[in-house]
């Protein structure tokens, strides 16, 4: 149980065996839980060192999502969608330029989250600093287990993770976008499930 305010990037959850509640937010607030009282700090306006910090009009988005059972993948997905809302884009008449299939498909447990995809920063064609450069072209994919578990469960989960990661398929949509020699570098982190979870 969290006693003091902590950073709450996507959601906070308080669950019991049969039910719980999640409070997603748009990635910028503090959160605290004492007993069964959850507190979301919407704004902090300190007077020092800048007396005008955070003054003005703010747009704040948060929601309450009751759920059955403990914290699960559905809460993580709802918080992710809340933080990345669908946006409508106007396109000229004619056929829009869309991809027929997703370039990367993640299969396996629903608690695995494909968080982001980016080019490798040390690739020769995109490197902007003095890091040693690699001639190959790579893609970095962040995949993580959103709900975690105990150490024994986690070790079993790792073997399932390995099987799931082998099934991640990278389809080259355009040779211009990803050359044939592109490598998929997987980096992930595990989080642990606690009675109150802040993400």
From TrEMBL:
One of its GO terms (cellular component) is fungal-type vacuole membrane. One of its GO terms (biological process) is mannose metabolic process. Residues 1-51 form the Glycosyl hydrolase family 38 C-terminal domain. GO terms for molecular function: alpha-mannosidase activity; carbohydrate binding. PANTHER family: ALPHA-MANNOSIDASE 2C1 (PTHR46017:SF1). The lineage of its organism: Eukaryota, Fungi, Dikarya, Ascomycota, Pezizomycotina. This is Glycosyl hydrolase family 38 C-terminal domain-containing protein.
């Amino acid at each position: 149980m969290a006693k003091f305010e902590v950073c709450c990037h996507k959601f906070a959850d308080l669950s019991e065996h049969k039910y719980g509640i999640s409070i997603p937010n748009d990635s910028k607030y503090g959160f605290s839980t004492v007993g069964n009282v959850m507190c979301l700090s919407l704004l902090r306006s300190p007077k020092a060192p800048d007396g005008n910090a955070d003054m003005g009009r703010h747009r704040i988005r948060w929601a309450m999502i009751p759920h059955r059972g403990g914290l699960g993948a559905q809460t993580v997905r709802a918080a992710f969608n809340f933080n990345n809302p669908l946006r409508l884009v106007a396109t000229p008449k004619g056929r829009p330029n869309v991809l027929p299939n997703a370039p990367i498909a993640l299969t396996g447990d629903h608690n695995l989250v494909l968080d982001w995809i980016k080019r490798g920063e040390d690739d020769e064609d995109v490197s902007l600093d003095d890091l040693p450069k690699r001639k190959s072209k790579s893609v970095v994919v962040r995949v993580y287990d959103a709900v975690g578990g105990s150490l024994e469960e986690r070790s079993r989960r790792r073997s399932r993770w390995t099987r799931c990661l082998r099934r991640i398929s990278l389809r080259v949509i355009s040779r211009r976008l990803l050359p044939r020699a592109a490598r998929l570098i997987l980096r992930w982190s595990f989080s642990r499930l606690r009675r109150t979870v802040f993400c």
